[in-house]
Design goal:
Blueprint lengths: L2 H6 L21 H9 L4 E2 L24 E2 L3 E13 L7 E6 L5 E7 L3 E8 L7 E4 L23 H17 L17 E6 L6 E7 L5 H6 L3 E7 L1 H4 L9 E9 L29 E2 L2 E4 L2 E2 L2 E4 L3 E8 L6 E6 L8 E6 L2 E9 L1 E4 L4 E7 L8 E6 L8 E7 L27 E10 L2 E4 L18 E8 L3 E5 L4 E6 L14 E4 L4 E7 L5 E7 L2 H5 L3 E6 L1
Parallel strand pairs: 1-12, 3-6, 5-10, 11-16, 15-23, 24-26
Antiparallel strand pairs: 2-3, 3-4, 6-8, 7-9, 9-10, 11-13, 13-14, 16-21, 17-20, 17-22, 18-19, 18-21, 22-23, 24-25, 26-30, 27-29, 27-31, 28-30, 31-32
Bound molecules: CU-O-CU linkage (C2O) and copper (II) ion.
C-alpha cells in the first residue's frame, strides 16, 4: 500500500553511494554545501499562525509525577496518553498528544536502584510505544518500535491494523518483505506496563514515543517528558537544587493558522510513514519552545542554577550561548552529559546540542549585575530560531550555598584496544530512504550481535548530520575523524552528534540484558524513514 507513495519520492542531492568514508563528501553538491553551511539538517516549515514576540511568557516547570503507590523496592506510576488542548500561542488552542495532559509530560524522578514501574494507557487515536531514552532497560520494557500500545476502544483491531500497515510500509521501504516473523505488535491491549530497574547512575533521561515509522509526528505532537534519575553520589554534591535545578526541554515547532501543530506528514492517517519529499532531511520549526512555552522568561536569582538542557527537537541542532556572556566568559559550566555527571566540570562559551542530547550545566547569575537580561541564544538559528529563552537577573541579595566541586564523579575509561569487536556503520541516504549499512529498518534483522560483558568499538560514518543513538548502554566517544573527541563529547553518552562526512568511534560495554535493542539516527524524520537497526545482545 505504501509503495506508490514511496516510489514517488525522489531524493534530492547526493546519491546512495556518496560517502563511503570520512572526507569523501560529494564534492560540488550545492545541496550538501548548503546544509554544511547552515549546520542544520532539514527544511524550515513556516507557521501560518501569527507567532508571539519572544519573551512574553513565564518559563513553565513540568510537574513531577507522584507514584500511585510504593513498596520496599519499587515505585508505581500511571500515565494516560491522551489528546489535550494546550495554550501555546496567544489566543489559539493547540491540540496536542500528551502524556497526562501536558507538554512536556510529567517528570518522573527515580532513585537509582529502585525499580520504577510505569503503566501507560493509550487514549490517543493511534498506537504508541514508550521508550525511556538513556534507560538501562531489559528488552521487554525498552519500547521496541513494534510493541504497540493500542488505542483504547479498538480492542487491538483497528489499532493493530494501523500498526501492521506502518510495518508493511517500512518493509517495502527496505526492499524486503521479511521481518514480519520478528514483529510483536503488542498484545492488542490499550495499556502496557514498563518496568525499569533503574540500575544506573544519576542522569537526566527522557521518555518519548517510539512507534515504528511515526515517532516524528508523535513526538512533534507532544509525546515527550523528563525522567530524572538521582543517586547518593549526586545527592552528596553541593550542586544547585530545588527551584534552582531546572529541566529545560527545548523543541522547535510550527503551527497551522488554527493553532494546531503543522507537520508535513506523507499520510496523516499513519499508514505510510515519513514526510513529504522537501522535508525528508528533517522538519525544522520556526517557534522555539522551552518546556512547551514559546521563548519564555525566567526570573532568576543572582545565584547558581543547574540547567538540564535537553534537545527534544525532531531535527534541529542548537549552538547555545548566553548573551551577554558573563565577564570572563565560560558561562555554561557543564557538569553532566547524557549519562550523568562528568568527572570534572568543563566551562563552555557555547554548546552544540544535537537532537536527544542532554547537557547538564550550571550558570552562575551572580556573575551578572543585578537587572541584567541574559538571553539564551542559538547561534545556528536566524530570526526567531536564534532566540531560545531569557533569564532576568533579580536585584536583591540571595543565599546560595551551592558550589561546583572540582571533582564531580569517577568515570572509568573503556579501553578500545581491548575491544572484542570493531564494527562500522554507514549512515547514508539511499534512493529508497535513510539507511544504515545500506539497509532500511526491518524489525528482526540484527546488524550486530555483541556478547554481554564485552566492550566493542563502533564506528559511525556519515554522509550528513546524524545524531546516532544507542539503546541499552551508555558509551564513550573515542575519536572523531581519527583525532580526539570534540568539546561536547565528554562523559557517558547515549547520543552522539555525527556531522557530515565524519567518522566517530565510540566504545561501549554491553551489560546485563540479552535481547533486541535499537541503534538509530535520532533525527526523527531519518528514523521514521528507516535509519534504524536492531542489534542483539547475547
Ligand atoms: Cu530517544 Cu530510540 O530513542
Ligand atoms: Cu540521520
Amino acid at each position: 500500500m505504501s509503495r506508490p507513495a514511496m516510489s514517488r519520492r525522489r531524493f534530492l542531492g547526493i546519491g546512495g553511494a556518496a560517502v563511503l568514508g570520512a572526507g569523501a563528501v560529494a564534492a560540488g553538491s550545492p545541496y550538501l554545501e548548503g546544509m554544511l553551511k547552515q549546520g542544520q539538517p532539514g527544511l524550515l516549515l513556516r507557521s501560518a499562525a501569527p507567532l508571539p514576540r519572544p519573551y512574553q511568557v513565564r518559563l513553565p516547570r513540568p510537574q513531577v509525577l507522584a507514584p500511585t503507590r510504593s513498596d520496599a523496592t519499587a515505585d508505581y506510576y500511571e500515565i494516560t496518553q491522551r489528546p489535550a488542548l494546550l495554550r501555546i500561542l496567544p489566543g489559539l488552542d493547540t491540540e496536542a498528544w500528551t502524556y497526562q495532559g501536558s507538554y512536556p509530560g510529567p517528570t518522573l524522578v527515580s532513585r537509582s536502584g529502585r525499580r520504577t514501574v510505569v503503566t501507560h494507557r493509550n487514549q490517543l487515536p493511534q498506537p504508541t510505544v514508550v521508550h525511556l531514552h538513556g534507560g538501562h532497560t531489559p528488552t521487554a520494557s525498552d519500547g521496541y518500535p513494534t510493541q504497540l500500545v493500542h488505542p483504547a476502544g479498538t480492542g487491538g483491531g483497528a489499532g493493530a491494523m494501523a500498526g501492521m500497515a506502518g510495518m508493511a510500509g517500512m518493509a517495502g521501504m527496505s526492499g524486503g518483505a521479511g521481518g514480519m516473523a520478528a514483529m510483536d505488535s503488542g498484545d492488542g491491549s490499550s495499556r502496557r506496563t514498563y518496568t525499569y530497574p533503574v540500575d544506573q547512575r544519576a542522569a537526566t533521561l527522557w521518555y518519548h514515543d517510539h512507534r515504528m515509522g511515526f515517532t516524528g509526528p508523535h513526538v512533534w505532537r507532544g509525546l515527550a517528558g523528563f525522567h530524572l534519575v538521582t543517586d547518593d553520589e549526586e545527592a552528596s554534591l553541593p550542586l544547585p537544587r530545588g527551584e534552582r535545578d531546572l529541566p529545560l526541554m527545548i523543541s522547535d515547532r510550527s503551527f497551522a493558522a488554527d493553532g494546531s501543530f503543522a507537520y508535513p506528514a506523507l499520510d496523516g492517517s499513519e499508514v505510510t510513514p515519513g514526510v513529504t519529499t522537501p522535508y525528508m532531511n528533517g522538519v525544522l520549526g520556526d517557534t522555539v519552545l522551552v518546556n512547551g512555552a514559546p521563548w519564555p522568561v525566567l526570573d532568576a536569582d543572582r545565584a547558581r542554577y543547574r540547567l538540564r538542557i535537553l534537545n527534544a527537537s525532531n531535527a534541529r541542532r542548537y549552538r547555545l550561548a548566553l548573551d551577554p556572556q558573563p565577564p570572563g566568559g565560560g558561562g555554561l559550566v557543564q557538569i553532566g552529559s547524557d549519562g550523568g555527571l562528568l568527572a570534572a566540570p568543563v566551562a563552555h562559551d557555547s554548546i552544540d546540542v544535537a537532537p536527544a542530547e542532554r547537557f547538564d550545566v550550571v550558570v552562575d547569575f551572580s556573575r551578572y549585575p543585578a537587572g541584567t537580561r541574559v538571553r539564551l541564544v542559538n547561534r545556528l538559528g536566524s530570526g526567531g530560531t536564534a532566540e531560545v529563552m531569557r533569564f532576568d537577573v533579580g536585584g536583591g541579595a540571595v543565599a546560595d550555598d551551592s558550589r561546583i566541586p572540582a571533582g564531580l564523579s569517577t568515570i572509568a575509561a573503556l579501553d578500545p584496544s581491548r575491544a572484542a569487536a570493531t564494527r562500522t556503520f554507514l549512515f547514508q541516504k539511499s534512493d529508497s530512504g535513510w539507511t544504515i549499512n545500506g539497509h532500511g529498518y526491518r524489525p528482526g534483522r540484527s546488524l550486530a550481535t555483541p556478547r554481554l560483558g564485552t566492550t566493542e568499538v563502533w564506528r559511525f560514518v556519515s554522509d550528513f548530520h546524524h545524531p546516532v543513538h544507542l539503546h541499552l548502554n551508555h558509551f564513550q566517544v573515542v575519536s572523531r575523524n581519527g583525532a580526539d573527541p570534540g568539546p561536547f563529547d565528554g562523559g557517558w553518552k547515549d547520543t552522539v552528534d555525527v556531522q557530515p562526512a565524519e567518522a566517530v568511534e565510540i566504545a561501549v560495554r554491553f551489560e546485563d540484558y540479552a535481547g533486541r535493542f535499537m541503534l538509530h539516527c535520532h533525527n526523527l524524520e531519518h528514523e521514521d524513514m528507516a535509519m534504524m537497526a536492531d542489534f542483539t545482545t547475547r
